[in-house]
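TEACHING EXERCISE
Course module: macromolecular assemblies
Task: Read the component lines below, then compare them to the predicted structure of the full complex.
Student: A.B.
Group: 4
Components provided:
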Amino acid sequence: MDSQDTTLSPAPPDSNGNLFDEFESAFEHDMQSIANAVSSGFESVAHDLFPTPADLAVPHIDLPQSDLTFVNLPMPDDHPIATTPTDDTIVGDPLDDLAYWHLQTADDTCAICSQQFVIEQLTGQPVSEDQLVALAEAHGWYKPGGGTSIDDVGNLLQLYGLHFEKHDNETLDDIEAQLKAGHGVIVGVRDEILWGTDANPAASIATSPTIPGQGADHAVEVIGVDRSDPNNPQVILNDSGTPNGRGELVPLATFMQAWAPSGNMMVEAW
Amino acid sequence: MERMLAQSGAAAAGNGPTMERMLEELRATPLYRQLVPMEAGIGWPIPLRREGAVFVTLPLFGFGVARSEGKRIEIHPPFASLTLAWSTKRPTKYVDFAFERPWPKPPAGPVGIFPHESIATLSVGEYRERRSELLALYDELCGALSGTGSFPADRSARFSELLRLLVEPSLRPYYRALGPSFFDRFLGTSTP
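Instructor-supplied answer key:
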């Protein structure tokens, strides 16, 4: 195609009047600051224009004093894990951790709910999804109608006194080591693989629980690995994104395939 | 279909980036991991040419998961855009629409659902095929804009057809605001 023929003209220059207004306002503010400096000395304007790291720190937000009690439903007696012998073939403590699961109430709070499960597990303190959403939004860690960036997954844990580390290129051995230590584990996954959409191309798109092709767009908590059937090892998840997410059993191979697109990202908390 | 995909692949072959791979790899980049919610969707690319170089603007929008049987996936308006240089895939511009609004502040909450009516009868596999075909045609279009390939009328027509099919109607007004020339050219001006 001759480039002269295209109608794809360059985008017009930015014409956002508000932006100009804001720039003008900021400019006037700076001018006023400089004028003030004449009478009050350079230090004050330098402070205005070049704030110290302490000025830029995230303001302290009092954590809400929760009056919640655990309201999660008890684990169904017929959940497969309930009938599995809790011997060395089960890594982690999934029977206990199942109790903290709930279905996320918003479209984009899987990372927040995964952190909620870990907070409640490790601190024994009930917190609500709404509380965590408010805290995360106040800190800039959650965008309503968007969600939580990978770099911000884990920050809520720290607010509740937990330590966390985040790594890429982790392995199943790393997950199991964390579970054996009693730590919380959150991973990023490609949900269409996790939920089997990818493996069933003949299914109607109208039944797909997610938009195909979007990559690693989901966070879940790993609560155990079940090797009781050596021929069918399974990873046990608390997955807030699906009604079947309490102790969701995922074949190991499927889990590894779903985990890979996130770069095998794992948040470990203790 | 396979022949068409093969042709598209051949046109996009060589050293140039492919749109589909670029979209997959984007989520692993530092800027994306720092700023873009992992739950967000990457919208249909909007190519533009500036001073001879080709760039691609990607709208970033929120979407949910169908949390119960029979429930559709809710789509939220784009909250940001990320523009990449086509030849290098390096980010050149990130705009948070809470700071610089291309449209009046939309009401909170979803604006539409996925899948929309015109694709609701497709299978997952058929949707994937069409998506891949459209993204391969983007490669040809960007190649033509870069002056390294051609984008003949039949390919352009197919591109329009697929774009019209796959672009979510609920997001069209937002896409048009972000790339009016591109969407006027390939979707026409008569539909929203």
